[in-house]
Amino acid sequence: MQEFPNPLSGSDSIFLRLYSLSDFYSVMLATPLVLAIPAILYFRRRDITE
Amino acid sequence: MVPPRQPLRNALLRSAHAEFLKIWASRMPLVFLLAIPAFCYLMVFELYHVEHIEEHLAVRHALHAVPMLFFGVWKMLLFQAAVLAFAAFWTTVDSQYGMIRVVGTQPLSRVEHLLGKWLGISAHLALVTIALILSIVGWAVLYSGVHGIGASDIAMLLRFSLELLVVTLALGAVGLVTASFRRTTASGMVTAMIAFIGLAVMSMLPFHVVPPRFVFVR
């Protein structure tokens, strides 16, 4: 994880934050989304009568 | 007579709610919720009774122990594997046993059904993540006490908890989305695991190809 900061002081963190919060949230949001779009397109047309 | 279609938001919520209740009725989430404190105790026992951390490190209160406990629990990878398996299983189980055809008769589009299923599974993943956080903090409080914990410590814990919730939901989402390409529970779980391994392998790519800050499994 490498992320355990103290938001009020920012200097006494046990772990060091290597990347920004925006990087963190964008990667966490974008990765599943990139995979979800083809999954939805596939599921709309797949055969469910097996 | 064909029942009237509901607005997307209502249909999604009802689908997610039904999925959540179906999964809860299986008792599998209950087993997860009961197993998580015991699972966390493995690391508690290791740190407090085997390694005696309080003799070697300045653990003044519970929140000084939480990062070490969490680090140990997270690095075992069992929680992440359980999240992926749970997500992949519940995504594919309808398909494997043909129940997906029953859902197909409901006044619900396939996209609404799929999104509702994903939301229902994600709600359970949020619950088990909260159980994980509460277990780690609970054990730490029991062993190291709460004396000296300040507002900044609690703010730090809340922010960390939010980020852990986001990470677990994203990991679960990777599992359930990739399993949606498959039709049996076994193939769904294998696909979800392979997707996770693939995301981990991305961290080995040269930095000029994919900067590490854009890699899911850092």
Secondary structure: elements and pairs:
The complex is a heterodimer of chains A (about 50) and B (about 220).
Chain A: H1 21-45
Chain B: H1 8-25, H2 28-50, H3 53-56, H4 62-75, H5 78-96, H6 99-104, H7 110-144, H8 151-179, H9 185-201
Helix pairs in contact in B: 1-7, 2-7, 4-7, 5-7, 5-8, 5-9, 7-8, 8-9
Question: Any low-confidence stretches of chain A, pLDDT <50, length ≥5?
Answer: none
Distance between the termini of chain A: 42 Å
SSE run of chain B: HHHHHHHHH
Oligomer: heterodimer
- Mean pLDDT across all amino acids of chain A: 75
Explain this structure.
Chain A has 50 residues and is mainly α. In chain A, 50% of the residues lie in helices and 0% in strands. Chain A has one helix at 21-45. The longest helix of chain A has 25 residues, at 21-45. The model of chain A has no long low-confidence stretch (mean pLDDT 75). By secondary structure, chain B is mainly α. Helix content of chain B is 76%, strand content 0%. Chain B has helices at 8-25, 28-50, 53-56, 62-75, 78-96, 99-104, 110-144, 151-179, 185-201. In chain B, helix 8 (151-179) packs across helix 9. The longest helix of chain B has 35 residues, at 110-144. The chains are: A mainly alpha (50), B mainly alpha (218).
